[in-house]
Structures are given as C-alpha cells and as structure tokens.
Write a structure and sequence with these properties.
This protein is mainly β. It contains four helices and 19 strands.
C-alpha cells in the first residue's frame, strides 16, 4: 500500500489501495476517495469496544475496502501532522485519541503508566494507547513534530502535553518543578514529564488542550 502525507498544517494522508485491501479509520476521517471503495461501519475491533471507550476513541470504526484499485484520503481533525508507523517494526505508545487509521493487522491495547501520578499530573494521561501487531498505523499529532532519539538512560524533560508518542522501549515518569517561586510565577505548572530512553520520542508543538485554553482567554464570557 503506497501512501502520501501532505498539506501540513491541515494535513492529509492519501492511501493507494489495491483490490481487496482494507483500511480501518476513525469516525469522520475520510475526506475523499475513488469510486469503487466501499465503506462499512463496525463496532469493536482494534482492541474492542471496552478498550476504545477507556482510551477515548470512537466505539465504531469505518472499514474502507477497495473493490478495485483506488485512493482514499484521510484528513486530520485539527491543525497538525500525521505520523505513519510500521507497527511490526516499531511498536508505539501514544497519547489518547491519537488514532486516525490502521491496516487490519494492528492491535490497540490500553497502556497504564507504572506510576499513577504520571496520569493525574504529567499531562500525557494515566491511560495511553499501545499499538502492536502487523501493518501500519497513522496517528494524529497537534502542531508540528520534533523527533528525538534517546540513548539508553538518556532523559528528556518535557512540559505537560507535549509528548505525542514514543517507542515502546522508552519509559515515562513525572518530575516536580522545584521551588515555590518557580511553581507560582514560572507558568509551567507543578510537574514536567520525563521520558527515558532507549528509543525515539515524537514531540508535538501545539497540544490541542493548550491551544483551546489559549483561545478561551480571548473569547467573550458572560458575567
């Protein structure tokens, strides 16, 4: 299956399907497609309904199957980027609601942080998604992407919400900001996220929650 990612920051991915190939997509992901590609909405799959509900994903997914060779274009839900992963080569742990699409051989499982405080204070979420199996997965990232490769034991300190995904060989914990003045006046919150290698980590430059809060400050509010 060939693919082409373009049109950043309003990013799309075009998948060129051969007859019989199927792509599983998040609800509302399809932007346009060739005639001859059929769509069927199915509940469950990709980890099951219970896991998807916990991870914040749609309970029903759309399955697009090529009855003849054609193309399927998927669009991101907000300004940002789309990352493609060969999951058989690189199992990935990603933030909740990052799933855009996958091929049929990809599985999604709930990934719980070893230290619960990561979820409640670290910003990346106590519950994340781990993708394994065979095939490709396409994940949504907010803003642009910065890719970093961490050596064994190398640590990267990241502000809340900026970790989009990481290789399953990485680990994550939180680190409290030191000093009352830094906490009160620094504007960075109480905690940072610490990612430890070995492995790659993909950082997003505009977490959607931060963007929403910034826009909220400029909106009129009733007294």
């Amino acid at each position: 299956m060939r693919q082409q990612i373009k049109n950043h920051p309003f990013t799309t991915v075009t998948l060129y399907l051969e007859k019989g190939e199927t792509v599983i997509c998040q609800s509302g992901a399809m932007a346009w497609m060739s005639d001859g590609i059929s769509m069927e909405t199915k509940a469950g799959g990709l980890g099951g309904m219970f896991k998807k509900a916990i991870a914040g994903e749609s309970l029903a997914l759309n399955h697009y199957t090529a009855q003849a060779p054609g193309e399927l274009t998927l669009a991101k839900h907000s300004p940002g980027d789309i990352l493609a992963f060969n999951i058989a080569q690189t199992p990935i742990i990603a933030q909740k609601t990052s799933f855009l699409a996958s091929t049929a051989g990809v599985n999604m499982n709930i990934y719980l942080q070893k230290k619960g405080l990561v979820g409640f204070f670290g910003g990346e979420g106590f519950i994340m998604q781990k993708y394994s199996g065979n095939g490709y997965a396409w994940l949504e990232v907010d803003g642009s992407v910065e890719e970093r490769e961490l050596a064994p034991g190398e640590r990267l300190i990241v502000d809340t919400g900026y970790v989009a995904c990481m290789e399953a060989t990485c680990s994550m914990e939180i680190q409290q900001v030191k000093g009352l003045k830094n906490i009160v006046l620094g504007g960075e919150g109480l905690f940072n996220t610490v990612v430890t290698g070995p492995g790659k980590v993909w950082l997003q430059t505009m977490p959607i929650n931060s963007l929403a809060m910034n826009l909220y400050n400029y909106m009129p509010h009733s007294s």
